[in-house]
Design brief:
The structure is a homodimer of 643-residue chains. Chain A has 18 helices and 26 strands. The first copy, chain A, is an alpha+beta fold and 643 residues long. In chain A, helix 1 packs antiparallel against helix 3 and helix 14 runs antiparallel to helix 15. Chain A is globular.
């Protein structure tokens, strides 16, 4: 069985990714701590830590925020844990311990912990899983607890969440007499799998499976809750109409029968991750098959930047090939969830389609989700920015022209923090005597193979350039297979073993080299990194006549700062060469591209004219999408007209 | 002073417009009567007439519909009046009289009439002008009453509305002791001007002026109402937050200081019409000047089809050049209101820019707003239709892929009916000894000039072709000026007087010919009607790289039926010739166009590929926009990529 090469076994020291590692420890953790404590001037109020203090009896006041405000603290704790595991953020351990102590004080005798219900409506706790996010919050605390125990050996938070999980496990389940229900916002499923893997207790896995199995079956547990509550909504505090169906929550049909990614995108990908994990661990081929089908469908609803969720209405998927550029949603959290899903699929089978998505998502949308200062964030990751439209057209109000200090609904910033602090675990998987290399980053890794520990050292500046050297650090005791991912975007990859060109066996986009490797053996790879024009599928109406510039895994964009206003008036020459220039934006290294292009101008006058436009030559400057919006604010554009 | 040449003085017998005249009498009036009486199977319930019966004490039951449900009856009555005036719909006069009798019975002793408040909340009548639409409904009944009296000589409805207006006039006004307020939905302003013109009673004009003068001044009367009602909303029946500002209702600043068209588009253009009318009749240059500025701004927010309202959020204007094609609103009512506004401006000064808008709106969006069967309607007039997106992307749910039988909010269908039944009045204006010809339609007209009656006969198939013959029917007693509009879209107009080519004096887009005309004098005009590619202003980002096909005033579109699916994959050759073919769609004559074009197909595979698209030649078939969606449902596209 394929397994993750966990963070303990990966030491990352990468020109491209490590600055983000350092950003989390050095800037993001302290900034987010301040945000969670309402110490950032001009930022939306959080109240998150204060809510816990109030619930712990250490402060007075009212609950502030959304039903799931607690989860921000959980994600922050998880990020601290990963930073500690990476050897950073040592000064934050004591602060994290304090938060955990607060939670311990706030936890109710029976294990329950949720500041929203404890402080505003204790009598309604665990009655409205559809809306109430209790299991979602618990899921995040489970993830934090597992990570924190792993990083520090401290079990306090793990004990807290296990008591809470035990409460839930006692109440809900397939057995007669237990309640039937499942979360309105999925998350606990994947978290319970982590808890199972951390503790070995199979009932956690069973509980995750139960929440998946019951979802979307009849009688729908959400409909039952609705009736029991007489339609009372925890969100609007009054009776509301019953939803027409539960596709928003992916509970419109049993999970194994779902074939299209629908509804709220974060809920969806968290659930699919849970399905893949439970499917893998219980060897449930029906779950795995559903995951494959859903993944294929997501790929047809995937922005080139790795964004998902074509509409802000319900922060949701729409349908295949519907990828509007002006009004896309592409929530940072949704892309993070998609990374989880693709990563879980890579633990089932090594296919470059999965890692292509992991890479596309990480190197584009996830990194774009935060400013290079670590103190500004995007909830929505735009495909194009027209600041005046964001301000004056309400249909585009969700597309912010600049990163925000914080969000009223602040799920994304700490989610990005925990993801970026744990990038090490997305690079490799291992299976018996095979090591899979999915993402190329300068790092040293070890994996336990059948005979013992095997080590690799990877030296590269990928994706800044396409040269990779993978050196074996230990003599293998049996033939070992190294499986190198050849990215889907790559037009040509050249392999050499100890300086001699070789042609590895290719399967599902991986180059397999089997050999009884000796310490010092080096596989050199050269990926063709030439910038290219990318064309979207013809069914993507929004991209007709347009191209995107991509170099390696990095999607590029035009910004007003480099190219002037009205980026839609620009065209790139379809036959252009690109000039590459090393640059930095916000302190991050990057390769700037210039290309031959044109600007169209009106030849006639008035709104509508019969005179064809005039074209003048204009050199176009492209910068990596993940660094957009880190200079002066202005227009931005990913899909550019081809002329 | 320029004045309208009213419908009594225009006999329309036009190949293009008269079928719509007949459609109103023959199909629309009966169908809408059925709809207003809930007799159309599968249509949204109206309850409109039944509400009046209940209020009249002749039926029992509950009020049904929206706050302004009464206005549908008013617009229907107005449409009946115009049809009667045109000599049609004779069988509907008795039915209209019955409705008027019902209203008389329902009217309260003090003159008040509004079924919503009478049946659901009499105690709150006239307390919430911001939301309650009472003055809006009254405005529509005024328009109906003036039209009905004019058509039939019957004064019953006029007496009803005058009693109601007297009630309002007694309550509201600039005098001390009177209430300060203005309608949340403008309409009564322009209606009061009609009442003034019909009765000569200046206090109606003064009341219209009062409603305009007080609007947007401090203290804002809407804010005062809000406070008095403690925030109670008539729409949501609970306390709601105070609006951030009143731009939605164009009450964010005094009307004379408004320079940008903002907020709800129908409200806006109804108000601007009132401003233009009051400005003209009171010779208030400050009002007229504001109208000119607002008109200019509207022209920058105007779809090529004559649609306004770029967003469904508030059915509203956004800002100059923001004209998204996938999610536009372009409500039929808003375009109708824009016709009113442009027509009112033509009574101030003859400028072809105004008539260009009247024409663009009428021949494209207004006609598109109803099916050729007269029994199906569009509320939103799309710039492109992708049926699957309308169904599955909530951001596009308002863009219906097919006309509807009726609407929950049914303002548009009867508005279209009254507009189409009164088209005669938009053709001509007159002033001293000048006759202005704004729209070309086969018709006979008379106008009172300084010395007496002057008559013209216009023979044409415009806009099917560009030949127009205007024959004077009476000897003029003094030199008379004929001012012929040369449409803004026209690349060349040739004039001849009695067969001899002439070059008239041009001013503001009108060709002036002054002469002591004799009966039989004929001015021949030949407008260049060749189909052309139209380019939008470069600031219109949504139309970059695209062209629209226009022939005369008619905007064309591609439909799936003629061109296959995925219209975005099609390109029109920028150098194409067009072939014209006479055709009919839904019984309406039209000219079909074919052009040289291409279809793009994927050369590579997958969502994102490096291979440029393949192009194959494909002949493109364009049909007039106003006839789209009258055959099989499918995709539709106005702005087409140019290749």
């Amino acid at each position: 069985m394929i397994r993750e090469v966990t963070m303990e076994n990966v030491r990352l020291d990468d020109a491209f990714l490590s600055p983000y590692y350092r950003l989390v420890s050095g800037a993001i953790l302290p900034y987010q701590w301040n945000a969670l404590n309402d110490l950032v001037e001009g930022a939306d109020k959080s109240g998150c830590i204060e809510n816990i203090r109030i619930a712990a009896g250490l402060s007075e006041g009212k609950f502030h925020g959304l039903l799931f405000q607690d989860s921000d603290a959980a994600k922050w704790l998880e990020a601290v844990a990963y930073c500690l595991q990476n050897g950073g953020a040592l000064e934050w351990e004591a602060r994290a311990d304090e938060v955990i102590e607060l939670i311990a004080k706030a936890q109710q005798p029976d294990g329950y912990f949720n500041t929203y219900f404890q402080l505003t409506a204790p009598e309604r706790r665990l009655t409205n899983l559809y809306e109430a996010h209790e299991l979602y919050c618990l899921g995040h605390f489970i993830e934090a607890a597992v990570a924190y125990e792993r990083a520090t050996g401290k079990r306090a938070l793990l004990d807290i969440v296990r008591r809470y999980v035990d409460l839930i496990d006692g109440l809900y389940g397939p057995d007669e007499g237990k309640r039937k229900g499942c979360p309105g916002h999925q998350e606990i499923e994947l978290a319970l799998v982590k808890l199972y893997e951390a503790t070995g207790e199979r009932r956690y896995l069973e509980l995750a499976k139960f929440f998946l199995d019951i979802r979307g079956t009849e009688p729908n547990t959400f409909a039952e809750e609705y009736k029991a509550l007489d339609g009372f909504s925890e969100w609007s505090k009054r009776k509301v109409p019953m939803p027409a169906d539960y596709s928003y929550n992916q509970a419109h049909k049993p999970v194994r029968e779902q074939t299209e990614a629908v509804g709220h995108a974060v809920r969806a990908v968290y659930m699919y991750t849970g399905m893949a994990e439970v499917g893998r661990l219980t060897q449930d081929e029906s779950l795995v098959k559903a995951c494959r089908v859903l993944f294929e469908d997501i790929c047809r609803q995937l922005y080139i930047t790795g964004g998902i969720g074509s509409t802000n209405h319900g922060e949701a998927f729409t349908f295949a090939y519907d990828l509007p550029n002006e009004i896309n949603y592409s929530e940072t959290c949704a892309s993070i969830g998609l990374m989880y899903f693709a990563h879980s699929l890579l633990k089932i089978e090594a296919r470059t389609a999965y890692a292509d998505v992991t890479e596309r998502v990480l190197y584009n949308t996830v990194l774009a989700g935060l400013g290079t200062d670590g103190e500004s964030y995007l909830y929505v990751n735009p495909m194009e920015v027209w600041p005046e439209a964001s301000e004056k057209n309400p249909a585009r109000a969700h597309v912010k022209a600049r990163r925000q200090k914080w969000h009223h609904c602040a799920c994304c910033p700490p989610n990005a923090a925990r993801l970026l602090a744990s990038m090490g675990k997305y690079l490799y998987t291992a299976e018996t005597d095979t090591v899979y290399i999915h993402l190329y980053a300068q790092s040293d890794m070890t994996a336990e193979l059948s005979y013992g520990t095997f080590g690799l050292s990877v030296r590269t500046e990928y994706p800044l350039d396409g040269e990779v050297a993978v050196t074996v650090k230990t003599d293998a005791e049996t033939p070992v297979t190294l499986a190198f991912r050849v990215p889907g975007w790559c037009k040509g990859a050249k392999f050499a073993l100890n300086g001699e060109a070789i042609k590895p066996v290719m399967k599902d986009g991986y180059a397999y080299i089997t050999r009884q490797f000796a310490a010092g053996d080096t596989v050199g790879i050269r990926f063709d990194m030439l910038p290219s024009l990318v064309y979207a599928h013809t069914n993507v109406r929004a991209d007709a006549g347009k191209v995107c510039v991509q170099r390696g895994p990095l999607v590029y964009c035009l910004e007003e700062r480099d190219n002037g206003t009205n980026l839609h008036a620009l065209l790139i020459d379809g036959e252009t060469d690109f000039t590459e220039t090393a640059d930095t934006i916000g302190g991050m290294r990057c390769v700037r591209l210039t290309a031959r292009g044109y600007r169209e101008e009106d030849a006639g006058s008035g709104m509508y004219a019969f005179t064809p436009k005039r074209r003048t030559e204009q050199e176009l400057t492209f910068v990596p999408y993940h660094l957009w919006g880190n200079r002066e604010p202005g227009e931005m554009l990913v899909w550019v007209r081809k002329g």
